[in-house]
Amino acid sequence: MDYAIVVALEMVRAVAWLVLLAAGLAIIFGMMRVINFAHGEFLMLGGYTVVVSTGAGVNEWVAILLLAPLVVGLFGVVVERLVIRQLYGRMLDSLLATWGLSMLMIGGVTLIFGNTVQGVATPFGGVRIGTYQMPIYNFVLIFFAAAILLAVWAVLKFTRAGLIARATMQNPNMAETLGIRTTLVYMATFGIGSAVTGLAGGLLAPVTGVVPAMGASLVGQSFITVITGGAAVITGTLSSATILGTISQGTTFWAGPVYGDAALLVVALILLRILPQGITGRIFKRAL
Amino acid sequence: MEKSLTRDPGFWIMVSIGLALMILGPILIDMFTIMQITQYVVLSVFALSLAYIWGFGGILSFGQAAFFGLGAYTFAVSSIGMGDTTVPLLLSFAVPAAFGVALGYFMFYGKLSDVYLGVVTMVVTLIFWKLANHTAGPEYSIAGVRLGGFNGIPSIPTINIPGQPDAWLDPAQLFRFFMAVLVIVYVALRILIASDFGRISIGIRENEVRASLLGYDIRRHKVIVFAIGSGIAGLSGAMWATYQSFIDPNAFSMEMSAKALIWVMAGGVGTLLGPILGVIGLQWLTLQMGMVDFLNSLVVLGAIMMVLVLALPKGLVPTFKSLAVAGWTLWRRGRGVGGRVKKVASDD
């Protein structure tokens, strides 16, 4: 019984983990159809923001919840202005450019901080479930994954900014004709997507530790989740994270973490063979 | 591609330069330099694999390193296992090509869009890299050869004369053999591109809908192109493994895929000569940059990549070509001849 609870909780945690990793990327992809290949390095930047600011004496929660999104969000706006903007309509070139950015960031951060793992203390202790021990921080991750999805949904559904965003998403030309500055919307989207990514990076930092090359081990999961989900930000992310998270976590229990990753890819490939536009390309088409 | 291959002077010039270098190189150039050039030769084959599928098949793969590494590991395991290198060299083409067919089936029959394709190829490479790093324990061995995890596989044999496992090639012979492979791959690709098959791939690259409306099965076609490119990448991986006599999971690294992309971008997509020049230029540049302390190779590669995309999207060879043409017409116009001729000629 205890074991069943632990397994179930671990699966929920795996789903939450994928949601956190993918949310920022999904916002940008859903809106602009641009995949940011430097996504892993945006996560890394969020992690380093937390490491540096806690090192300077800032409260850990302020660093995670406030500074990480702020720094990475601003960085995202700069990147959008300098790079992404030049490449609208040249989708593949934007992949290449962001990949260049990713290498530049890994190299740059290595030059500044060195190629060593920097840890952040994990807040809270553990909780006992029968004979098993589980870190309370897992529940924090689950909470924030849910909170991010809810917040994005609420903004898109109920605010004027969300309305403008949805209009631009559905038909950019029409939105432009009606007087919406789509370039501004795109800039804001990229900034917000980056900020969410920064928040995720900050939240993950206590779990993964922070290294310049940490992105490489995280982007795979983020990309797969987003493209399997398809263009709808919330439904897509949630549905694909649920499918992929449970399957990969199940495989991890059974055979080890590396095979969990491999299983993630195999399932994603099969899903994409059946649903080439992602889950929300055919099912839940009109969903957000 | 209107010109037939046999009438294209560029083709014959390239082949002659290649053959001349192959025969005269070890005689005229000292051994240390020859061994350095061997490295460029191997990487040129790798660059050609991507140059073909991207430039002449319209498939932008972000995971060429997956096939490079797969070929290298196939060669390492089978050559140590068998003791002879002839069959392993063939295997290092066949195994990655077969994997290319399998992956290509999922991607092209699923009709994934360009962006999805890029992401899937990249993720496949990442997974290979992780798996290869994970194989440290003794339980991960194929036919008695340990994969060695992040330590890699040491003491990979040098190429030997078929059937004589003890007759290893010396560095000069190895260089000649690799040059021969490069020339053969170049010639084979040129013939393939000029053939009906190649024309159809270019047609698909230009306009997929039109090609499929004309009755061509673009999915099958793309799978074949992708598999050929994968096989060539695998072959270059095997050459790399035997050249270094050592292979580790970094063969699967993102940096390797990125380098291939950068060579092709720098040289120009849609040419075969460009990527080879890209290899020579950029490897030399990285070597020089490596001596500067405060820079590391990732910063250099990343910066080059961004500059190429943003400032030189067409690559060096096509850019120089159009600059040269523009300069030539300007010069002729300055002398008062051919001004009118240019106008007619620019219609094409």
From TrEMBL, chain A:
GO terms for cellular component: plasma membrane. It is a multi-pass membrane protein. Its main location: membrane. Keywords: Amino-acid transport, Cell membrane, Membrane, Transmembrane, Transmembrane helix, Transport. One of its GO terms (biological process) is amino acid transport. It comes from the Bacteria. InterPro entries: ABC_transp_permease, BCAA_transport_permease. GO terms for molecular function: transmembrane transporter activity. The chain crosses the membrane at residues 15-35, 64-84, 96-116, 136-156, 223-247, 253-275. CDD domains: TM_PBP1_LivH_like. It is found in: Cell membrane. Belongs to the binding-protein-dependent transport system permease family. LivHM subfamily. This is Branched-chain amino acid ABC transporter permease.
From TrEMBL, chain B:
Coiled coil: none annotated. CDD domains: TM_PBP1_LivM_like. The keyword Cell membrane applies. Keywords: Cell membrane, Membrane, Transmembrane, Transmembrane helix. Pfam families: BPD_transp_2. The chain crosses the membrane at residues 12-29, 41-67, 87-108, 115-132, 174-193, 223-241, 261-282, 294-312. This is Urea ABC transporter. The lineage of its organism: Bacteria, Pseudomonadati, Pseudomonadota, Alphaproteobacteria, Rhodobacterales.
